[in-house]
TrEMBL record:
GO molecular function, one term: sequence-specific DNA binding
Entries under InterPro entries matching the protein: AraC-bd, Homeodomain-like_sf, HTH_AraC, RmlC-like_jellyroll, RmlC_Cupin_sf
CDD domains xrefs: cupin_NimR-like_N
Ranges in a coiled coil: none
Origin species: Superficieibacter electus
Protein name: AraC family transcriptional regulator
Keywords: DNA-binding, Repressor, Transcription, Transcription regulation
Amino acid sequence: MKAQNATLLFDPDATSSAAVARHLDFVDYEAEVPVHTHRKGQLIIALYGAVICRAENEIWIVPPHCAVWVPGGVPHSARATWNAHLNYLFIEPGAAALPEKCCTLAISPLIRELVDRLTHEKGEGPVDDHVARLTRVTLDELAAMPQQKLSLPVSAHPKIRAMADTLVSHPEDRSTIKEWAKRLALSERSLTRLMTRETGLTFGRWRQQLHLIIALRELASGVSVQNVAITLGYESVNAFITMFRKTMGSTPAHYFAEQKINTR
């Protein structure tokens, strides 16, 4: 039986409710969710596995215990790991004090449970007082959640986009910025300036952030630390763990243990 496109599951804009939630297990749906948009903003919560979103010339990672917020009207696409279990919360514009730009948010256990509870409501027709109160508490709590730095600026500039698309598909590529400049028919100095102007990051910092995003996705889907290090082209597992610890504050094992996720 052919997997379904998740965007065809239902229309979040068909209801005027302040918020409506849905649960998706991606074993039942196509991993690739094509570019689409809707009036309501969308909160994507990963219960297990991970998903990468593209919106506003950035790539956003949704590891377990975090969520990506996509404001209403923003075109976006996503790709989930095969084992991703997600909860979506679609929020009517103006119903909550949420950022006007896409971002990754930390998600408290309370919000996770509240959204999960709301997935059992149809969100169609009149909302009873109990569901309305649950929704209000959820939105109030959500507005207080801190942002996480789990995005990668990509840029619409054709040369930066070409390089980004290649490195997303082949993260093991260890070409230097000098080698990339030659590929893109630019001087090293010009590419350095273009990279900083378009992404706000140096090439080295940008590639490290890309590796972090891919690592979080792969580790969340159950790939071993050793295989992730190989996928990203690291000379040793220790070199990869050092990078991860410097950026995330703990080793992969400790990070996922804190998130109550077991890596295999």
